[in-house]
Amino acid sequence: MAASFAQRPALDRSLGWFSVGLGVAELLAPKTVGRMIGVGDQSTLLRMCGMRELVSGVGLLSGRAPATFAMSRVVGDVMDLALLGASLRSPDSNPTRVAATATAVASVAALDLYASKVDVRSSFAEATQDVPITASLMINSPPEQVYAYWRKLENLPRFMTHLDSVKELDEKTSEWLAHAPGGVKLQWRSEIVEDEPGRFISWNTCPGSQINHCGSVRFESPPGGKGTLLKIEIYYGLPGGPMAAKVGQLISNGPEAMVMEDLRRLKQLIETGEIATTRGQPSGTRSLVGRAFSRSES
User: Fold this and answer.
1) pLDDT of residue 43
2) Pair 167, 154: CB distance under 8 Å
3) Residues whose CB falls within 8 Å of the CB of residue 278, separated by 6 or more in sequence, listed in order
4) Whether residues 15 and 117 fall in one domain
5) 250-278 pLDDT per residue, tens
6) Which long-range contacts (CB under 8 A, 24 or more apart) does 5-10 make?
7) What's the rounded Cα separation, in Å, for the pair 96 and 78?
8) Predicted confidence (pLDDT) at residue 148 exceeds the cutoff of 90
9) Which value, to the nearest 10 degrees, does the dihedral of the CA atoms of residues 160, 164, 168, 173 take?
10) Residues 115, 15: contact at Cβ < 8 Å?
11) Where do the H-state alpha helices sit in 155-240?
């Protein structure tokens, strides 16, 4: 992991200069580039691609938001492959050169995808803990029982869908593995800072982790003494900070909504021993955004 992070600036610079060079060529000599790659005279289209390459390249070389510009290159690679395929319908195209170009683009796309995953991981690790999440839920079970279930950290992936595994290394330290959209895996170590049996747990991620957050969970007896009022508070690092979190809420479930869904699954597990699911049942047509995010998380 450390080696990958150390190599990230050099890789970003290499891809940035490559993107700038290609962008300049497509802008200044689109006909020549078109003949070289076998698509014929597609000057307008190639100039548009050149502008996109320049923006991505300059963004990578600037060192600001590298994950965003690395991902933009991946999206650009997919567009380029689609355009190459479409160009085969043109009588001016050279199928042999188009095929060779597509192979080269696919190779670069693999490198861009690797770079984007490294950049995403490093962006999470470097982000400050300035995005808050708060959630609470009533569970029909005594605080001691809810605490005991949560305190066995290896139970958490049963109701937290983004978690792949949690391994307890000792009484305080644990190792976590999670997945993010786009197939990015995130790994970190967490340390319990405070532990009051039946009442309160707080934690913080350890240095060198691929994600940066801290938080606490309270197990309170509500008025009347029946059940548990579970209160969770988390501060985590997100590339782009609070603004990125607000944008995320517009296109998908926001972090707080995801945490509430996790708590509802916990409630079902503790109260009934299982989680209700709609998998395999008929459902209405989902939105384009919903389907896209569903595919990216699978």
Assistant:
1) 84
2) yes
3) none
4) yes
5) 434 567 788 899 999 999 999 998 876 64
6) 5/118, 5/121, 5/122, 5/125, 7/118, 8/66, 8/115, 8/118, 8/119, 8/122, 9/63
7) 20
8) yes
9) -80
10) yes
11) none
Query: For the chain, what is the domain count?
Result: 2
Q: Answer for the pair 203, 192: CB distance below 8 angstroms, yes or no.
A: yes
Q: Which two tokens stand for residue 272?
A: 């009934």
**Which long-range CB contacts under 8 A does 103-106 form with residues at least 24 apart?**
105/77, 105/80, 105/81, 106/77, 106/81
Distance (Å, whole) CA 178 – CA 182: 12
Domain that holds residue 131: 127-276+284-297
Of 101, 125, 149, the one marking the end of a domain is 125
Q: How many residues does the chain have?
A: 298
Q: Which of 39, 64, 63, 49 is nearest to 19 (CA)?
A: 49
Tokens of 136: 């609470």
Q: How far is Cα 23 from Cα 18, in angstroms, rounded to an integer?
A: 8
Please tell me the distance from the alpha carbon of residue 70 to that of residue 114, in angstroms, as a whole number: 9
Q: Which helix (H) or strand (E) holds 40?
A: none
Global model pTM greater than 0.70: no
Provide the residue type at 155 as one letter.
N
